[in-house]
Amino acid sequence: MQATRKEFIIALDEGTTNAKAVVLDSCGHIVVKFSQPLAIQTPRDGWVEQSGELLVEASLDVIAKAVEHVGAENVAALAISNQRETAIGWYRQSGKPINAAISWQCTRSAAFCDELRRENKEAQIKATTGLPIAPLFSASKMRWLLGSVPEGHRLAERGEICLGTIDSWLLWNLTQGKAFYCDHSNAARTQLLNLQTGQWDNEMLALFQIPRAALPDIKPSCGLFGYTRGLNAIPDGIPVMAMVGDSHAALFGHALGELGCVKATYGTGSSVMAPVQSAKCDIDALATTIAWHDGDRITYGLEGNIPHTGDAVSWMADSTGLSELSDAELAHELNTLPASVGSTLSVYFVPALTGLGAPWWDDSARGVICGLSRGVKRAHLIRAALESITYQIADVVVAMRQQDDFHLTALMVDGGPTKNDWLMQYQADLLGCPVMRSDVAELSAIGAALLARKALTPGSISDLKGFLTEHSEFIPDMVRHQRLQKRWQEWRHAVNRTLWKPASST
């Protein structure tokens, strides 16, 4: 490919199941993309982990292919969007991980989180970090990592062990240890960041027993993080100009943080995030986070995290034999089976496979399929799995409506499951608001690339509007919306069956 200037931005989207490199040209159009699958290990019940070395290997591989395709001399910058909350530790001198990367899905630190609740630390943690106590977040995982190696805490205090989220791990490897940073959005997911100061909080560091010397410095999501260095297939000197959590990147890629445009990413799990103007949130069931720092100011986000959405459908497809089909055949079945039956015959699937996230936050909950009868077939079960996605997202939106500065104009959606038209229409009908599906699947990569573009050509956020992608609109049927409220109420009764302490239905 020929180019006359450095016009390309390569965005690495390092997710839970795939590492993707997406090349965007000077008009923001996707030129080419490369992907490599990532393995997940579950060595014990509730434990979910990944090889940190394989995460890097896959990421460098797809970046190298992208660089080769367009020519290193034509690459203006790299941008990184990454799976959030996943934590990893490594030895500063060798760069070798001290243990596997502990996935955001992992609940091995649940017992410690219970201790914090018994010690009545929840209010303090929520007030400082914006996050409820849950093993989802990075701090308790980092504490576990230090305890997993001899003298881990002492080595960390001396700066001999580094702790980070995946953005900092990738940056360290891209720069051969010359750059040790994370961005505000990833730092905000650790439970160690003070939302008011935008810096690591001493009281939280002490509470989770994390030495400051082990942590990266925090930088805005948009700006220079470092340069590639010492890599076999990637030339030296390519600047890394943006790093941001993948859900935050998707929110930015949808509408640049416009109020009222609430984002739902449908992936292995789901993040429902709304841009808000303040870090203050009094809703226990939701997290307040930093959506991004664009180099000029911080944008905050109100968020609910759901661990099992697309994962729930995959589990049901596997359990009903559909996973033996090819990808194309499976997609066809998931689109047609739910529409082939008029309802689930009152079957509800609550996919609490490693606990429930927002708005319930119950690590002890386990999944349930209720309402089974003799007439229930595979189509009803698949439909129940797909409906479970819409109900979980709607539950988070209901919680968000308690926030004074929350607005819902449209639900902006992205991720693999959004290709299912039936699912999107059901979501629109359930919520009673338009669902706007991105016509480009790589929205996290696009969001990260847009932040990098702002860093390369400083200006206002509004200058990026011309780079936004098109959306397909699903308009709600308000008559059906009213009918679905009864089913939504029945879903909440099903949720109560999974909870350690049943909640009252609202």
From TrEMBL:
GO cellular component, one term: cytosol
Pfam family, one: FGGY_N
PROSITE patterns given in the database record: FGGY_KINASES_2
One annotated GO molecular function: ATP binding
Gene Ontology BP annotations: glycerol catabolic process
Domain spans labelled Carbohydrate kinase FGGY N-terminal: 9-253
Keyword Kinase on entry: yes
Keywords for this protein: ATP-binding, Kinase, Nucleotide-binding, Transferase
The Carbohydrate kinase FGGY C-terminal domain, residue ranges: 263-454
PANTHER family recorded: GLYCEROL KINASE (PTHR10196:SF69), SUGAR KINASE (PTHR10196)
Sequence similarity: Belongs to the FGGY kinase family.
Name this protein carries in UniProt: ATP:glycerol 3-phosphotransferase
Organism of this sequence: Serratia ficaria
